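Raw record, unedited: CCHC-type domain-containing protein
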Amino acid sequence: MHNKNLGSTWKNFAYELRSFFNEWVNGVKADSFEKLSDLIITDQIKRKVAQEVKDHFIDDWSKLNSPDDLVEKLDDYNTLRSKRPHKEWHYDKQNSLKDDSAFTTNGNKKLYGITHNERGEPKCFHCSNFGHIARNCSIPKSVLTCREGNETGLKIINCVAKETNHASEESLSVRLVGENSDDSNSFLKKAKINNCDNVQALIDTGSSCCLLKISVAQKLKLKFERAAHKIYGFGNQKMPALTPIGRIKADIEVDNVKAENISIYVDPDDAQSVDLIIGRIWLDLPHIAYTKIGERVHSILSD
């Protein structure tokens, strides 16, 4: 459920809801009232299903968009369970049900595909220790690397590294761009979007894309299109950290270093503290280089 951001106007909230709804409808190809009705009814049924049953259908759960197909599978599942002989149940430390008869006789015992030790404690597939599962593991998970752009950190499905934003090649010359960093953060810069001044930007070498607050996009009257991508954070490729409201193409300039027609994702104001996050789609362009000398970030333009 999408919630209204604190400090956001109701007009912005309505716009975000409409954008999310249209993206969802287009994504599931609900091109008729009947299909849309089926999706809404299916969603209401799914909300009433126990997590244990959802886990049983985990491979097909997102594909079950017809209420008839869904209830048929649920009824079949309940019928199958009712025919199973009664078995002794007990609770483990995390209050999860375990079926004693489901264990095998070897040292590593299995319950519904999850490996346990002889005391029935689950095995963590991240650290290989017993007593907890991977999602509750306290050991930091390794950072995943994008298959397309070979980037770490902020990720997008169908990596934006596949997009090209090459400026025209001219005679080679290199100049050091002037410093205007905020004293408290050497990665903060004043940027221009389509030659409009006073946009607070953060140079983020860990981000593969550029992100802009929706309030800034509206203030600059930037027209954006629907974004089909979802943005992911460190180490989690299953649960999106952010669903962009839209995407624009605009020029970004920092200290007279300019790149044209950059893809920028528009997100809710509460998703980031600065107006603009400048990622590698801008930083890694052939005519742009950057380095940190002391406490200052220096950009170098080669054009």
